[in-house]
Amino acid sequence: MSSSKSKEQIWDEWRDLVNMAPQDLEDWLETDESKSVGDSDSGESTGHKSGRRIVNIKRTNKDDLTDDQYDHMATVVGYIKRHCSQGGPKEDLESSAWRYSLMNWGHDPLADGGCA
Length: 116
Known about the structure:
globular; 6 helices
């Protein structure tokens, strides 16, 4: 595992920040809005690929998580923290690229416990 944080620290932050249920995230990833945001190197954005990995991780029992999955969880936590600290737009927050991007990473900033 490449993160300097312990697995327990990563798990705790992940549970706090990734606030979308696996099915909700999976459904979101199928929308045009989800596919419209993010940097793309091969037709699918980095965030969209990450979202598919997040669904898989959320459906995995904690005791069965691999080091690679914990590494991705740490990446997700870092992404969500960075983008939440930047804040979203003052207007049209609900349909903003900022929100859509965060949702691809499993965090709905407008949900309970969200960063908006």
